[in-house]
Structures are given as structure tokens and as C-alpha cells.
């Protein structure tokens, strides 16, 4: 009994402390408040870049086309990008915002910028964190991509009592920790008040591709739906800028914990906003959202 009381008191005080800290962070960044465009349709599809998206694009393409489409990070590398003509695109990879014309080790970012400048001939909203303002990426898009409207979102990580942080999330003062870009995309689309959000290509299966060498080097093979699997190799995941030491197995699985915990927070926040999230990925380890495995057909009521 005493232990239960102690644990309850400890939990309350811990949540109170992080809630106060979150409120202070939100107050310090009031000027970064996210202001989002109104939704165009009642239903949207968030397309992750997992390998299973190829199957979904084969089996569910007609349905996806009837929704408001949200793509993320390097989706523009796929030929289907210009066929889908997505209305929304979310980038949260910090490497995009330190990229410059002199950067030589990120040809993927150069490719994305080229596609934006040369092929996006339809209205598209690009969502990037507020700290991207003034970056080479944003300046280049502003100069070469007149059809892209940029929206800056407030990536202030807020934790604490749900009643407080959900209120803050809803008003654009912050969001959950976005360990993956999908968490950021889902938060933004919840705040745009879609009735239903369908999630595709969210395999979240990186653990299947973890390898450990005899020297205890951690290797991972990251395959996306637009890659040719035979061209993707297991590579070291370095934890220091000198590329001398890889992440430990413990830290890698801690990162995975944060990914899955982020989806649980998003699920609860979506319930708070009365938004339904359905995981329609052909393959997925995400257990936070209801799974949909049958072929989807848009309701005539829409």
C-alpha cells in the first residue's frame, strides 16, 4: 500500500515537472506557432517510404488517388510522385536543413531539390520545421519552385499531463517527439482535422535488417520502396561525427522504443481530436492503430 502511494506520488510529481517545463518551452516559442491550411478533402492518405508501399500502390492506388495525399522525405525520388501529384509533402530530416550547394555526401537531397524545381507543376504544400527557415533548402525552393507553398511547423517537443499537452498540440504550440517523419506528418494532419487518416508504407521493420559484426559494429540496411534492394547494402550507423564508433544495440533499440511510443501518443491524441487513424500498410509492425488489410473503396457518401 505504501509503495503504491509512493509510486503514485512520484508519477504525479514527475508529470507535473515535465508539464511545467513543456509550458515554459511553449511560452518561449509562441512566435513559432504552427498555422495550417484547411483540409481539401475529409480523408487523407499518409504515404511512408517503406518497401511495402509498392504493394499498396498496386492494390490501393485508385483509393489513394481519391484522398488528399501526404508524402514524406525522399518520396520525390519515385516515378509515381509526379503521377500522384500529392497536395502535401512533409520533410523533417535535419540533414535537409544543413545541406548547402557545397555538400557532397547527400546526393539524395540534391535529387529531391531537383525534382521540386523541375517537375512540380501543381500546387503543393511543403511542411518543414520552423528551424529550417533561412536554410539553403528553403531559399532554393523559394527561387526555383513557384508551385510549392511552404508551411513552417513548430517542432517543440512537449510532454506531461495529456489534458495540457493535447491542448498545446491542437493550437500549434508543439508536438510529440517525432522520432520518424510519420509522427510529424500524422500530427499535422490530425491538426488539419481530417475525419480519417489512412497510413500506407509504414513498415517500421528496421529491426529485421540489423546486423552486428565480429567487431561489434552495428550495421543496418535501410530499404525504401523506390530503391532496388540489390543496390542497398548494410552500412555502419555511426554515433560520432568522426565516424569511429557505431551506436550500441541498446541505443538502437531505445530509438525503436521511442518510435513505437510516439505512435501510441499519436493514437491517443487522435482520439482526443476525434480523428480516426487506420493503418492500411501492406506490412507493418505498428500496433497502435487499427489495421486494415482488405481492398479499400471510397464511400459514396464522400
From TrEMBL:
Gene3D superfamilies: Alpha-2,3-sialyltransferase. The chain crosses the membrane at residues 6-27, 148-169. Keywords: Membrane, Transmembrane, Transmembrane helix. It comes from the Bacteria. This is DUF115 domain-containing protein. The lineage of its organism: Bacteria, Pseudomonadati, Bacteroidota, Cytophagia, Cytophagales.
